[in-house]
Amino acid sequence: MVASRTGSYKKPLPVIHPDNAPYWAATKKHELRLQRCTDCKTLRYPVSPVCWKCLSEAVEWELLSGKGTLRSWIVVEAATGNPAWSEDIPYVVALVDLEEGPRLTTNVVQTDPYSLTYGMPLEVVFDDVTDEVTLVKFKPAS
Amino acid sequence: MAPLDLRNQACIVGVGTTEFGRILDKSPVRLQVQAFRNALDDCGLDKNEVDGFITAFGSPRGVDFDEFTAHAGINIKWTNQYWDHGRWGTTSIIAAATAVTSGVANYVLIANTNTVPRGYGKAFSQFSGGRWSEGLRDAGGGQGQLDYHGLDTPGAATSLVARNYMTRYGATDEELGSIAVAFRKNAQLNPNAIMYGKPMTIEDYMSSRFISPPFRLFDYCLTNEGSVSIIVTTVERALALKKKPVFISGFQGIHNGRNDFVFFARPGLGVGMQEEFDYVAPPQRVYEMAQVDQKDIDALYVYDAFSTNTWTALERFGFCPAGEAHNFTQNGRIELGGELPINSNGGLMSEGHFSGYNHFVEMTRQLRGECGERQVPNAEALQWITPFGDSMILTKGQ
Ligand SMILES: [Zn+2]
Predict the structure, then answer these.
(1) Domain ranges of chain B
(2) Which residues of B touch A46 (CB under 8 A)?
(3) Which of A73, A102, B296, B304 could bridge to B347 as Cys pair (CB 3.0-4.6 Å)?
(4) Residue in A with minimal Cα distance to B149
């Protein structure tokens, strides 16, 4: 868990707006919730105001297990975009397949970036990067 | 009603560029007008005949349609301006071909100027800070970016595509390097290429630094400044101009959807929201429209923003089965003189990143036989392909 550091966090933050606000409200409570269409039952990602399968807007925010497996990853060794990432080099950006299906683009933290293996079990970790924003990241399953 | 057959109904008649360079310190308007003058000279057209205009980057990186008409003193009756992305090459030329064959315009100028933040962009405050980023959309960026997880550049995002591909199919770093080496070699025969005079061996490639592995520095395209102009008209008008026209024989558009969302990953790779499956290339409309077989393509042009785009595009169009492109690109096959030369100009990686508009200039010159040392012998049919599904076949016609 990273302490709140509003004001000093220089990296990009998600744009929170009414469509996605429930997702970010959940992460702030350290819950991973995604939308399940109550018409066709599709669990969807990314967060969207509509179901990509049936276009319904009817939804419930389902609490997920936070368990997943490492599908693929890179270790970023040079910050070529926003220079604020330099302090994190080298860092892991990963595709994580959630137990419930959807695949997230996220970070794997709290481990040696060069120690990862395909398919390794992961669990969610919530990173409170500011007072308002908590990011969903993963660490090796305990 | 049968679809209108636009095969060989429109032609590229004039092409022109500026010099290409890392930093030219010339404004987008100046560069675009220079390339326009060169394209007019190339076909012997008076500027006042140009009555249609397409631009792919707006200001400040390139030119907006209205500022260009004001500066160039032309009067247009049809225009189209695309979003600030490199992907619109085929779309632009299809739009121009459709415009001239429908009569909404007679001569369409397609314009692409690229300036960069550390070049002329310094003069424009829009380049600095606070800009909306596509990687902040809820669906992320078009290459799979998600800025707040540190995947905030197309290159880092595409290295994740490369990682998926290489792991799944057992491709090696040396095999990846063959692409950058081939395009660099081609560029040694192109005096306007930014990497002209800078040859690179596989050893040079392997000793270059990693940015986000598997991508090294040389897996990236160049960032640079310069301008391209391409003039399109109908076949009847084309035949009255200075040079032999180059025929727009076949085309197909960008493909997009959840399985295509990540632009540089062909379907089936399982990147981002894509499903993972064993991809088999379906029949491609571009060949049917052009009435050209894939085996009769004399040289290929690929949107090589990053090295692996060559693999994903080759497989997407069925030049080799899924998982085999990393073998296909070896042993000089894609170099000039090889079985299927790719990017004879040096590509975005070694000629310069002009979003493929420079590739269309090269294709035109190749079909005219104007390419000197790098001329593809007996070039009759050339094809442009991208990992995101659009394509165009240009031919010498009959
Ligand atoms: Zn639904």
Answers:
(1) 10-127+153-395
(2) 138-140, 273
(3) B304
(4) A106
Q: CA B297, CA B383: separation in Å to the nearest integer?
A: 7
Facing B155 at nearest CB: one of A73, A80, A93: A80
Q: Do B156 and A47 touch (CB under 8 A)?
A: no
Comparing CB atoms, the residue among B146, B210, B213 nearest residue A105 is: B146
Instruction: Check if CATH label 2.40.50.840 holds for domain A65-142.
Output: yes
- Neighbour tally for A128: CB within 10 Å: 19
Q: How many angstroms separate the CA atoms of B86 and B385, rounded?
A: 14
- What is the three-state SS of B250-267? EEECCCCCHHHCCCCCCC
Residues in chain B with CB shorter than 8 Å from the CB of A106 are 149
Contacts of B164 in chain A (CB under 8 A): 72, 95
**Which residues in chain B are contacts of A12 at CB distance < 8 A?**
133, 135-136, 147-148, 152
Return residue ranges of chain A for CATH 2.40.50.840.
Answer: 65-142
CATH superfamily of B10-127+153-395: Thiolase/Chalcone synthase (3.40.47.10)
pLDDT band at B133 (very low <50, low <70, confident <90, very high): confident
Which residues in chain A touch residue B142, judged by CB atoms under 8 angstroms apart? none
Q: Do B156 and A88 touch (CB under 8 A)?
A: no
Quick check: A82 and B152 in contact, CB under 8 A? Answer: yes
Q: What is the pLDDT of residues A62-105, one digit of tens each?
A: 999 999 999 999 999 999 999 999 999 999 999 999 999 999 99
pLDDT in tens, A33-66: 999 999 999 999 999 999 999 999 999 999 999 9
State residue B210 phi and psi, 5-degree precision: -75, 140
Q: Name the helix (H) or strand (E) containing A53.
A: none
Sheet (strand B246-252) strand order: B78-81, B52-55, B107-114, B226-234, B10-17, B246-252, B391-395, B381-385, B299-302
Alpha carbon of A18: minimum distance to chain B alpha carbons (Å): 12
Q: What is the pTM of this model?
A: 0.96
B223: number of Cβ within 10 Å = 16
Taking a contact as any Cβ pair under 8 Å apart, which residues of chain A between 46 and 75 contact chain B?
46-48, 52, 71-75
For B207-228, how does the pLDDT look when each residue is reduced to its tens digit (9 = 90+)?
999 999 999 999 999 999 999 9
Residue in B with minimal Cα distance to A84 = B150
Confidence of residue B132 (pLDDT cuts 50, 70, 90): confident
Rounded Cα distance, A125 and B74, in Å: 59
Yes or no: say if A94 and A37 are a contact pair by the CB < 8 Å rule. no
Contact A72 B160 (CB under 8 A): yes
